[in-house]
Design a protein that fits this description.
Elements (H helix, E strand, L loop, with lengths): L5 H22 L3 E6 L7 H17 L3 E6 L10 H7 L4 E4 L1 H4 L19 H10 L1 H14 L1 E6 L3 E7 L7 H4 L3 E4 L5 H7 L2 E4 L5 H7 L4 E4 L1 H6 L8 E10 L2 E5 H6 L2 H35 L3 E4 L2 H20 L4 H12 L1
Parallel strand pairs: 1-2, 1-3, 6-7, 9-11
Antiparallel strand pairs: 3-10, 4-10, 5-8, 5-9
Organism: Roseibium album
Keywords: Signal
Protein name: Neu5Ac-binding protein
Amino acid sequence: MKQLNKGAKAILVGAIVSAGFFAGSAFAQEHTARLSFHWSPTHHSAIHAQMFADEVNKRADGRLKIEVFPSGQLFGIREQLGAITSGAVEIGGIVPIVSFPPVNKNYNVAAFPGMFNSYDQQRRFFAESEAGQEIWNDITGKSGTTLLMYNPVGPVMTFSGAHELDSLEAMKGLKARALIKSERPMWEAYGANTVSLPTGEVYTALQTGMIDTINSPPGSIRAYSWWEYLGYAQLPYQYFSDAYLMANTEWYNSLPADLQQLLQEVGAEVGAISTDKIIETGEETLAQFKERGGVVTELSGEKKAEFDALMAAEVVPAMVDLIDDSVLGAAQEFVSE
């Protein structure tokens, strides 16, 4: 082989160095993601979504960077799932009882009054039972999404600015916000009037008197300052409203396996923290609500029996139309075991 002259050697060395540089750059490629959610930064779910992003960014050591967009900067509560599905964002905060029923109506079972007694029981239904798995797989398959983290918004109860919610008579004529379809049978049975509103419009609607009553987790009335116009609350809780951080599956599958594992590990860790604290957060909010002069009525005895009778006679039959009989039976069997 001929000896290379100096010029040829220089070219060869440069090529080798360049090849090494580009190979190293490809290996250290930075992946990026936009995390969108509608919660305000002080909301329980927003705090833990931010915690998730911060922890992933720290552990990824520059290989994955998540940028956070809170407060509906990109998409509102009703648009998040579509944004993830389309790839408009890579990760989003989903309130499933809002986003999932249009994909599969049987997810309404999660909001069936008194069906599940905890977040754990509700999640296990969708993860372990045949009926629940079928619902879950259908939704995630059609929407092209992958679960990263449980991030609950809190157990739901009724708040009002009208008057104390201590009887069925007190519920008549209330101007109630309806966020989800499964709420309407209850409001109709109570004789209340309903207005459909996304989260971002609730404060103004309360301020102007368009509505005076909402179903909400306690933490939300503090995070969005709704308690400025709400002075009365009613227990017990109606159902456990969960939320998730979900990723676009195509984007998720494009990541190296170790980054996928990192997202799942951080999601499990931060999700456990979020879940452990959510009931405590609700109780703290109700204590502060009372300190502000709020009145919390916990139904019991004959009063509760009146509400229960109305639920059984009118609300439950109306909600059954929103869920397949087989799914409702499967859920009832699951919780009885």
